[in-house]
Structures are given as C-alpha cells and as structure tokens.
Design brief:
Elements (H helix, E strand, L loop, with lengths): L9 E5 H15 L4 E4 L18 E4 L2 H9 L7 E3 L6 H10 L3 E4 L2 H14 L4 E6 L9 H9 L7 E8 L7 H22 L5 E5 L11 H22 L2 E5 L1 H4 L3 E13 L2 E6 L20 E5 L2 E2 L7 E7 L8 E9 L6 E5 L5 H4 L11 E6 L1 E6 L12
Parallel strand pairs: 1-17, 2-3, 2-9, 3-4, 4-5, 5-6, 6-7, 7-8, 8-9, 11-14
Antiparallel strand pairs: 1-10, 10-11, 10-16, 12-13, 12-16, 14-15, 17-18
C-alpha cells in the first residue's frame, strides 16, 4: 500500500491505468467516439481524459449530473440518460447545456418536448430502443414518435441501445447490431428518418479471475472490432462503456484484523467486506480475483515460507460476508494488508455502504501524485435521527 497516509479500508484509483485502457480501446476502434458511463466509477471523473479520447460521459441521475457540475464537466460532454426522468431534472439538464438526452418512453419524449419549447433549448435527443426489459421503448413507439417529429422543438438525432453487461460472446453483439439495423431500416422506409448518431453500449465483460487479464480483455475487444467498424461505416456509431473502461483502474486495500481456525478452516477477518468490494460473477466468493499480501510495506508474494489456505471474510455480521471462499496465501498475521486489484468498476458505487453502519472507506487517486478524494465517512449518521 502506498505510504501516503492511506488508512484501510480504502480504494486507490489509478488515472494512468484508466487512460491506458481508453487509449487501447481507441486504437482498436479508431475514430468511433467513446462515452464513459460514470455509474461504473464517478470518482474517475476527476481524471477524465481529453475529449479526443472520451467525447461524452453518460449521466443517469440528477445526482450524477450534480457530480459533473461540481467538477465543472462541460455540458457539451454530457449524455443525460436514465430510465427515471421527471420534468424538473430534464429542465435542469437542459439548462446546464447537456449535449444529448435520451428518451426512454413516450412520457420522456413529451416532457423533453414541453421543456424544450418552454426554455428554447434544443437538445439532441436519442430514442432508446428496448432490449426486452424496463429500459427504452418498443419499436412501435419509436416509429410513432418519428412519424410526428416535424413539429418537434427538440432534435431527434438517433437511437440509443444497450442490452446488458458482462458480454463475452460475439454472437451477442451480432444480435444487438442486427436489431438496431432492422429498426433503422423500418424507420427509413416508414418515416424517412436516418440517424446522425447510434449510441451503443456493447456491455463488454472485464476479466477478473484468469491471467493474463489485459490480454484477455484485448482479445474480447478485438473479437468484435470488425463488427463495430463495419456498422460505423453504415451509420455514425458511438460506443458507450463503463465496466470495460474502469475495471483495471482500481485497487482495494483492507487489513487483516483477526485470524482463527473453526472446523478445520482458517478464517482471516478483514476490516472491509462485501459492502465495499464486488466483482461481477464471483458466485458465493468461489472465484479468486487478483489479490496480494503486504506486510510492513513489502509484498510477500515472492518470499519463501509457509503458505496456507484461508477463507477471507469481511467485517459484517452476516455469513454472506465472504470475499474469497478459499485461497492459498503466505502465512498471514494480524496487521497484514490484502490488496484486491481490478476493482475500478462498480465496487465503489454499487456496494451496500451503509449496511451495519460500518465506516465508508477512504478514496484516493493516483494522477501524477497520490491524493485523497474522500476521507472516511461514518455511515451511522445516515442510519439514525441524531
């Protein structure tokens, strides 16, 4: 753990790793513009790369819009999305000058229409196509809206589509792009509409459990590269990612606070837990993410000595709080630091941080220098009337 005054549990996000991942994506996808979904990790906004690498950030709530405002993210770099919009936050988004706003229902479209007319703002509107869940609209609703767009004070510029996360198969991407093509053909035939932008979230998985991690991610990206480039030759395509961009850029540090053996199992109790560290697909903690042991600032990975098997458990009073069911590590001592890598996506924003009123962890970023973005917060204050 860097000797910077960091206290466990804490996250350290690395701006250089974030930028490298985005640069690697740009090298593969060439001129296709990229959007970063900040729900994966809003703290990486403080290290947002230049517009030539990340053209937009996707914002999915008024709270995320407030984060952008507090960090002075320009409105022309914001795509305002989200299944739950109301008139007041649509108005707030348009007044801030967001570049693009999505319409996920007829109601959304009506509200955007009304606010645009009242404010004189003319946002670019993407009609979101549903993949068969609560997000977006049916093809029929989209075609009906397009047929009546001549009197629209907003500007319908294209489509938005996302069908799920952690995809690993080329056929899933092929299916998505085929669905988009089918609708665009109907839209052109029936309404004369051609999109200026198709914003697509491929939902690529990130490798957490098998080395070489970065090489496996690259193989996945390049397996769909030609599909995306071919589509971008037909329509202006934008690619939206969260997990795939952010996953490599985070490390979580937690301290071993107790060690005991029950029923022949060695348990190491750490000061973090599942409320702060989550990896997609780590079913019942059976999979092993990248983890290292540090003692007195030195890594124990290459040292010779006794190794043993441990069940790594967190600080919560629930049997579900298991980070790793079984892992072989150098013989642990109380005070050792466990570092979990590749947790840059979702852990920091998706955990049940107020559960059992444990402290919310420190958050640090390495961007030239290592600095603290958020000190430890006592969550008990959020769980009572004091």
């Amino acid at each position: 753990m860097p000797d910077t005054g960091m206290n466990t549990p804490c996250y350290l996000f690395d701006a250089s790793r974030f930028k490298k991942r985005i640069t690697d994506i740009k090298e593969g996808l060439h001129d296709i513009p990229l959007t970063f979904s900040i729900k994966a990790n809003p703290f990486l906004l403080s290290a947002l790369p230049a517009k030539n690498l990340i053209e937009h950030v996707e914002v999915c709530s008024p709270g995320e819009l407030a984060i952008c405002r507090s960090l002075s993210v320009p409105g022309d770099r914001i795509l305002y999305s989200g299944v739950m919009k109301e008139e007041w936050d649509i108005r707030e988004a348009l007044e801030y000058g967001v570049d693009i706003i999505t319409s996920e229902s007829r109601l959304h479209y009506d509200l955007i229409y009304r606010v645009s007319r009242e404010t004189g703002k003319k946002p670019k509107v993407l009609l979101r196509l549903s993949s068969g869940n609560q997000f977006g609209m049916s093809e029929e609703d989209i075609l009906d809206i397009l047929k009546g767009r001549d009197d629209d004070p907003a500007e319908i510029t294209g489509l938005h589509f996302y069908s799920g996360t952690a995809k690993t198969k080329v056929k899933q991407i092929e299916k998505d792009l085929s669905k988009i093509r089918d609708l665009l053909k109907k839209a052109e035939d029936e309404t004369g509409f051609t999109p200026e932008l198709v914003e697509y979230g491929p939902g690529l998985s990130a490798e957490y459990y098998e080395e070489p991690y970065d090489e496996k991610d690259r193989e996945l990206l390049y397996s769909i590269k030609d599909l995306l480039l071919d589509f971008s030759g037909e329509h202006n395509l934008g690619i939206e990612m969260g997990r795939f961009m952010a996953a490599p850029a985070g490390t979580y540090y937690t301290k071993v606070c107790d060690i005991k053996t029950n029923g022949g199992v060695n348990y190491a109790i750490v000061d973090g837990g599942i409320h702060q560290l989550k990896y997609y697909g780590q079913n019942m903690a059976m999979k092993i993410p990248p983890v290292k042991v540090e003692r007195d600032g030195e890594s124990l990975e290459k040292t010779e000595g006794t190794r043993d098997k441990y069940c790594i458990c967190g600080s919560l009073c629930t049997v579900a709080d298991v980070l790793i069911r079984e892992i072989e590590l150098p013989e642990l001592k109380v005070g050792d630091i466990l570092s979990f890598d590749r947790c840059g996506a979702y852990s920091v924003s998706e955990g049940a941080l107020t559960f059992l009123s444990r402290s919310m962890p420190e958050i640090w970023i390495r961007d030239g220098e290592t600095r603290c973005l958020r000190e430890k917060i006592e969550s008990w204050k959020l769980n009572c009337d004091y």
